[in-house]
Amino acid sequence: MLTHDKPATRAWVLHPDLKSDPARRLAEPALQEAASLAEALPDLEVVGSDIVRLPKIQPGMLFGSGKIEELRGVFHDNAVELVLIDGPVTPVQQRNLEKKWGVKLLDRTGLILEIFSDRARTSEGVLQVEMAALSYQRTRLVRAWTHLERQRGGLGFVGGPGETQIEADRRAIDEQLNRLRKQLARVVKTRELHRASRAKVPFPIVALVGYTNAGKSTLFNRLTGAEVFAKDMLFATLDPTMRRIDLPSGDEVIMSDTVGFISDLPTQLVAAFRATLEEVLDADLIVHVRDISHPQTEEQAQDVMAILHDLGVAQEAPLIEVWNKVDLLDGDARDAVLTQAARTEGLFAISAVTGEGMDPLLAAIAKKLDNPRVEETVSLSFAEGRRRAWLFEQGIVTAEAQTDEGYDVTVLWTAIQKERFARL
Fold it and tell me: Three-class SS of residue 41?
C-alpha cells in the first residue's frame, strides 16, 4: 500500500541468470519472487522487470557493456529511479552501475533488509534489523548515515534520509553497533526471563514454519482467533507471535507463528532474525506449511528443510507437513493433492482461508503431542534449589529422598517436561 504524502519510487527488477552458477534457480519464478519482494515494500512502484542472461560475471560492472547500454535506455525511457538486482552486487559494481545508469541500485540483501526494517515490530526485531543493516553497509560505504538517527521507517537505502552518496565514518558505525549490542543484550535478557517463566508452563510449543507467503499467519489466525497481520505479501510476518489454544482433545498448546523462509537468504540475515526462529528451536512439534498451489512448491520446501537442518531442529522435533491453499487448485490437481495427503502419514491438505481440513490437522497435532509419562529418579545437589522447585511446581514429583550431596527426586513426567527440565 503506497502512502500519499510522496510519489512512489519507480523501480525496475533484474534477475541475473548466471549459466555457470551451480545453485542457479529457474529464471522466471525467481524473477516473479524478486518482483514480489519489491512490491512488498511501501512507496515502491515496480514498473518493469527483466531476466538478464549472463555467460559470466564482469567483476567491475556485473553485466557486459552492451547490456548495460541497452538497459540504460530502458531505464531512461521509463523514468526509473531505482534498480533492484536479484542477487549479490559488490560495492564497486554498485557504484559503477549507478554512475552508468543514473539511478540508485539495491541488491537482494539490501532489499530484504528494507522489508525487514519496514515490518519489524518488537524491540528485539528492530534492533536486529538495525545491526544487520549497519553490518551490511559497513562493508559498502556508499550511503549516508543520516538514517541512523531516524525514529522509524525505512533504512534509507531506497529514499528519504540516506539518499546522498557520501562515505560513512566507520568509527561512527562501530560506535552505533556497540550501542545497539548493549541495547540488544538488555532486550534478550528480558526475553530469556519470559522464556524461563514459560518453561514453568507444561504446555507444548507448536511452531508454524514455511516459505514466506505460504499462509502461516492465515492458519495461525484460524487456529488461535488472533488478528495477526496476514496478507498475500512476502515477509508479512517478521516477529514471533505466540498464543495458547485448546485442542479438540482438551489439551492446551502454545502456537507460534514465525518469519517466512526464503531462498538465498544471506546467512547474516538469518542470524539477525534469530529471535524469529527461537520458538522453532524450542518447539515440541514443527508444522511445515507449504503453498501447494505455487509452481515452485517443491523447491520452496527444500529451502525450508535446509534451514531447519542448519538450525539443528529438523532431526529432533517431530514434524507435520501441511499442504495449504488447496482452495486455489482445480479439478485433477486438487484431487491428486487430496488423494496423496489421505494416503500419506503426517501429511495434511488444508485451506487456511476456508477452514477445509482443520479437524484432521488438529487431531494429528494432539496425537503427536500425546506423550506417555515415565517414572525416573533425578539426583540434584543442594545448590540446585531452583531446578528442584520447578519439579514440584509441575506436580510431577512422586517421592524424594535426601542424600549426603542433595536429593534423589522421583518424578513421573513426559518427554516434553524432561526436555524443559534439561534446559533450566
Answer: coil
